[in-house]
Amino acid sequence: MPSVQFNSRPDLTRPGVGVVKVSTWDVGGPERQRRTVEAVREAWGSRAWPHPGLLSYTVHTGEDGRTLLHYSQWSAEEAYQDFVRSGRDARNAEIDAAVPGIERLGLHSFELYRSGRLEGGTREPGCVVIVDIELDGPDPDRQREWVDAVFEALASGPAPAPGRISAHFHVGTDGTRVLNYAEWESAQAHVDALTASGDGAGSTTPQWHRVQNHPGLKRSTVHRYTPAISLSSGL
Q1: Looking at the whole model, is its pTM more than 0.90?
Q2: Within 10 Å of residue 106's Cβ, how many Cβ atoms?
Q3: What is each CA distance from 17 to 4, 22, 115, 116, 199, in whole angstroms?
Q4: 155 by DSSP, 3-state: which?
Q5: How far apart are CA 182 and CA 164, in angstroms?
Q6: Smallest Cα–Cα separation from 107: which of 64, 69, 51?
Q7: Alpha-carbon distance values, 228 to 36, 48, 98, 175, 203 (Å)
Q8: Residue 226 CA: distances (Å) to CA of 145, 151, 162
C-alpha cells in the first residue's frame, strides 16, 4: 500500500470521487479535541494508506471546542464498505484508546453537485463553514433545485463578501440533505459577511427569499471549523 501524504486541504473537485462521507464526533472539550486530532494523525500516519478506493481523509476542529468534522472522498460506496470490513476498526480502536469516550454523532453520504470558486480561490482557508440543509422527505430533484436557487441568488446579489474563497454543494445520496462545504479566509470574515446588510443569505432580494422559503425545506444549521488534518495517498 502507498504511504500517507499530509496536505493543507482536500481537493474538493478532484475527479474520480463517487461518494463523500461526512461525520461528526463529539469529544467533550478543547483539550480532548486537541488530543483526538493528534491521535488521528498518529493512527493514520503510522500506517500505510488503507485502501485504493479512499481518495482523501480530512478532519476539522469545531469552533465550539468539542466537535470534529470528518470529510472523506471515496471512489465508490463499495470501496468504503470494503474499507469498513478490512481496516477501519484498527484505526478507531487506537484513537479510542488514546481518547476514551468519543461520541460519534452520525455518518451521512453525499455526492458533489455544484461548486463555485471566486477569483483567487486557491487561497488557503483559515475557516470551513458547513451549512447542513434537511428536507422533509427524499426528493433528489428538490435537492438540486434548492442548490440551483442558491447559485441564482448569488449571481443576482452584490459583490461577494471579502474573505469568501469557495463553496461546494453536496447532495445526500438518500435524497433528504444538502451540505455546503464553504471555504473562508477566516472565521471573522464569515461573521462579518453574515452581519453585513445585503450580502449572501442575509439579503432581502426575491432570489434569496425563494432560497429561504423553498418547498420542503425543514431546517438548516451552520457550523464553523478550523482545518486540522488532510490526508491522501502518497506516491
Answers
A1: yes
A2: 8
A3: 18, 14, 14, 17, 32
A4: helix
A5: 8
A6: 69
A7: 11, 20, 18, 30, 32
A8: 30, 25, 18
Distance CA 8, CA 79 (A): 24
What was the pLDDT predicted at 199? Answer: 46
Nearest to 69, CA basis, from 22, 126, 108, 8: 22
Q: Residues 220, 134: contact at Cβ < 8 Å?
A: yes
Q: Are strands 217-233 and 127-135 parallel, antiparallel or unpaired?
A: antiparallel
Query: Is residue 41 helix, strand or coil?
Result: helix
Residues in the chain: 235
Give the pLDDT of residue 209.
Answer: 84
* Dihedral sign computed on CA atoms, order 133, 137, 140, 141: negative
Give the residue from 8, 80, 70 showing the smallest Cα distance to 50: 80
The tens digit of pLDDT for each residue in 158-171 reads: 777 788 999 999 99
Judge whether residue 20 has pLDDT over 80. Answer: yes
- Return the sign of the alpha-carbon dihedral for residues 71, 35, 105, 179: negative
The segment with the largest mean pLDDT, out of 111-115, 155-159, 216-220, is 111-115
Per the CB < 8 A criterion, the answer to whether 227 and 125 are in contact is yes
Q: Contact, 40 vs 52, CB < 8 A? A: no
Residue 99 has pLDDT above 50, yes or no: yes
55-86 per-position pLDDT tens digit = 999 999 999 999 999 999 999 999 999 998 88
